[in-house]
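Why this split exists: single-chain examples teach little about how molecules sit against one another. For that reason, every record in the complexes split bundles all components of an assembly together and asks for one structure covering all of them. Below is a record exactly as it appears in the raw files.
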Amino acid sequence: MKKYRIFVAAIMSIFLLLSIGCDSAQKAQTPASSSSAQQTDDKKAVQQPEKKTVAQEETIQVYFPNADGTKLIAVSKKIKTGNDKYKAVMQALLEGTTDKKLTVVMPKNTKLQSIKIDKNVAYVDFSKEFIKNFTGGSTGEIMLVGSIVDTLTEYPEIKAVQIFVDGKEIDSLSGHMDLSTPIQRMKDLLKN
Amino acid sequence: MQKKIVSLMLFVCLFCLQGFVGAEAQAANKITQFHYSTVKDVLQIEIGLNKEIPGVALQAVDGNSSALLLDLKQTQLGSIKKRIALDSKLAQSIELKQVGRGNGQMIIALAQPVSSLKYKMYTLPADRKTGKPFRVVVEIRKAPVIEGFSADNVNGKTIVLDPGHGGSDTGAVGPDGIMEKDVTLAVAMKVESLLSAAGAHVVMTREADCDVYGPGATDRQELQARVDVGANTPGADVFLSIHANAFTNQQAHGTAAYYYAKTDADGILAQSLQNRMVQYGGLYDRGVSEANFYVMKHSAMPASLVEMAFISNPNEQNLLASDDFQDKIAKGICLGLNDYFAQIGN
């Protein structure tokens, strides 16, 4: 009986070790970790001192879909442009809007993990709620992705946006759009 | 300890039950009732038995395109008439036979070729309250035909139909719990039946409530599995994915068609489908849009994804769940495909 217990304990500890191994390996693979993203942005900010001299507050355009989900409407918002302007822009989108003619499509409790710009592509990393709490079909997907992409591509240095969730690439949101590659500005959604 | 007692009791129960079933099986299963009726052009044949029988199967008789064969395993015919004439436009008569080791057989002589009919079989459990016995039910109806459908253009074409979502993926869910996966399948089956009747070769990515790749797959595996059905269908002319739309705001409504502009044909396909869906479904026209949807982008042949209506909108949810709207939109989709082939064929 004792031998049996020892054997079970040994097996369990092997599994435990294996699972720890897997976990650390996954973490190492994370493509857009938030610390490195912030570092690159800090460097850029230092290299471009003219931006720092601009007033601390900036008015930006944040896009939200209309009630019927047929197009995106620009809403002006004031943000504090510190060292991480793009993060502030995304936070403004996450905040939502109180305009009753518009719809808040951002899934509930979604948090921004990081945002990093590399070669004109913005890599935005959201928490798992982005997928978990998403409810919608094709129109929901298009409007959500469109609001993120079109808000960020207001900046000429951003040509496309790729969405990550918990540091990992995603295939899709709910089985419609192919989100495995960067998405360019969705101009069709801005037509009147 | 309690758990042990419960499992022991369960075991004892199972053991008793087995003995019970075993003893029952020895006594003969017998047909005790026969009944048929025609309601709304559906012929319903009902056979009552003194108890549940181990197997039933319904199929068209080989080499005879106007008869159906119902196998009743381990069933005695009893004192029921062996030949019964039916007063129906769909079937003429039924004949009962005893075959092999005590198995029963019912042959339904149809009044028209089996290809022009739809049939199904199901069983109903005994109901003590109403005194009804265990029943085997056969339903026969006329296969739907599309009025004004010129079969010329879809005839001989190969069409891959993809009912959106399925199995572990419900798709969007309406305010009353209607699931996208169910309405997409219902409409796709209707489209399949209409297209087949018009001479098209239809291949379905799924024909039941199931995942195409398998449960627990990644989005990419699941979507690619659907694309693969098209890729593995020689000579596939079109890939068509059927969906129901959803949006956070319940006001959102209407019909839309999407395409990925691989070729000019993709846009023509989406527009043809959209025109006819709006014409037959009668909902708000949201127009045709480009989108980088996975199944359209990765299918080699012209492809479209249609959003019939918004399941998140209470009114349209009810329409999507109704047989009448499903018939209309299915007809629109078929005529849209017909228009598409007419246009690109020239």
